[in-house]
């Protein structure tokens, strides 16, 4: 019988399949519903210090079947309301707040506040591809020094997962900088910077113009980036766990990421309209391991690295 249990920064999770930030996670009620699934942990929509209203619509459009472009604008009620409304301590499944900010000090303030509210670990979003400031400048996750500064500032009160962007030349270098700065895990990938155009209206398809691509079509890019991260961490003698995501639609996709060296995975876009798929994916992973005769995730993690 397959054992799916996994440890993340000292936390014991029933299985390695997490709900990704940004989908079915914006209210306590939706999170409660998702906690009934076979899921290792739930990650919240990004929380900022002040409330953010989000961008004007359309905010999410399916560009090709299964692949979506979105620019939500990080809508959230702000730190105070989040801490009041979301219980981080007494659910049956670990809830991991995802934090977004513009400076290391703001990240530190958010991390400290969610730690006081009972969070055991937080994910920091260094990588949303379309904040206004990034149209000309760079995201924290596009600069190893900036990413490291944020990780260092945020990780004083609780373990931190650094969520990276694929929109860089060398994602391994950024992952190593984050790990050396104290990140307890690296998650990747956030969405690919993208635009799409409505030929009839002769304008961008999204209200915000700029957006990020997610869903089935980006899976091979996610796998490549996770492979790059695992190789770079290994070369730097770092054993920081990697959480793979990008285009996971079924159990085979989870297997693909673990074969590339991921310890855990996050599932997002495919759950829009089909939340139960989360449990199907976890059950499918156990079935695959049983069929292959694997008892633990370590039995096949990183198996394809020798091919590269
Ligand atoms: C959004 O809220 O616009 C997307 C967030 C992200 O990609 O990190």
What do you see in this structure?
The protein has 308 residues and is α/β, with parallel strands linked by helices. The protein has a single domain, classed as TIM Barrel (Alpha-Beta Barrel). The chain has eight helices and 16 strands. The chain has helices at residues 28-34, 79-85, 104-116, 144-154, 171-180, 219-235, 251-259, 277-292; strands spanning 6-8, 11-13, 17-19, 41-47, 60-64, 67-70, 94-99, 122-125, 160-163, 185-188, 192-194, 197-198, 203-204, 211-215, 242-245, 264-267. The protein has an eight-stranded parallel β-barrel with strand order 3-4-7-8-9-10-15-16, surrounded by six helices. It has a four-stranded antiparallel sheet with strand order 5-6-14-11, with no helix packed on it. Strand 15, helix 7 (251-259) and strand 16 form a beta-alpha-beta unit. The longest helix is centred in the C-terminal third of the chain and has 17 residues, at 219-235. The chain is globular. It binds succinic acid. The site of succinic acid has 11 residues, from loops.
Strand count: 16
Cα-based radius of gyration, to the nearest Å:
18 Å
Mean pLDDT: 95
Low-confidence sequence ranges: none
Number of structural units classed as domains: 1
User: Percent of residues in beta strands?
Assistant: 15-25%
Keywords:
TIM Barrel; eight-stranded parallel barrel; 16 strands; globular; 20% strand; alpha/beta; binds succinic acid; 308 residues
Secondary-structure blueprint of this entry?
Elements: E1 6-8, E2 11-13, E3 17-19, H1 28-34, E4 41-47, E5 60-64, E6 67-70, H2 79-85, E7 94-99, H3 104-116, E8 122-125, H4 144-154, E9 160-163, H5 171-180, E10 185-188, E11 192-194, E12 197-198, E13 203-204, E14 211-215, H6 219-235, E15 242-245, H7 251-259, E16 264-267, H8 277-292
Parallel strand pairs: 3-4, 3-16, 4-7, 7-8, 8-9, 9-10, 10-15, 15-16
Antiparallel strand pairs: 1-2, 5-6, 6-14, 11-14, 12-13
The structure holds succinic acid.
């Amino acid at each position: 019988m397959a054992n799916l249990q996994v440890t993340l920064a000292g936390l014991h999770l029933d299985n390695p399949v997490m709900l990704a930030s940004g989908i079915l996670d914006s209210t306590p009620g939706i999170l409660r519903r998702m906690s009934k699934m076979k899921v290792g942990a739930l990650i919240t929509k990004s929380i900022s210090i002040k409330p953010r209203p989000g961008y004007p619509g359309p905010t999410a459009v399916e560009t090709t079947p299964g692949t979506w472009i979105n620019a939500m604008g990080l809508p959230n009620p702000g730190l105070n309301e989040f801490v009041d409304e979301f219980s981080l301590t007494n659910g049956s499944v670990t809830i991991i707040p995802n934090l977004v900010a513009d400076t290391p000090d703001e990240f530190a303030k958010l991390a400290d506040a969610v730690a006081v509210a009972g969070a055991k670990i937080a994910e920091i979003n260094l990588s949303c591809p379309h904040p206004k400031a990034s149209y000309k400048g760079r995201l924290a996750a596009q600069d190893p020094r900036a990413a490291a500064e944020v990780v260092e500032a945020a990780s004083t009160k609780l373990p931190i997962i650094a969520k990276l962007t694929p929109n860089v030349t060398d994602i391994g270098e950024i992952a190593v900088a984050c790990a050396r700065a104290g990140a307890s895990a690296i998650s990747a990938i956030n969405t690919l910077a993208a635009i799409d155009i409505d030929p009839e209206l002769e304008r961008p398809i999204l209200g915000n113009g700029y957006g990020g691509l997610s869903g089935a079509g980006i899976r091979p890019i996610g796998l490549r980036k996770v492979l790059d991260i695992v190789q770079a961490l290994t070369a730097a003698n770092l054993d920081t766990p990697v959480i793979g995501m990008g285009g996971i639609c079924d159990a085979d996709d989870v297997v693909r990421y673990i074969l590339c060296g991921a310890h855990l995975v996050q599932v997002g876009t495919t759950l829009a309209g089909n939340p139960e798929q989360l449990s199907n994916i976890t059950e499918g992973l156990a079935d695959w391991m049983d069929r292959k005769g694997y008892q633990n995730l370590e039995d096949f993690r990183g198996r394809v690295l020798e091919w590269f």
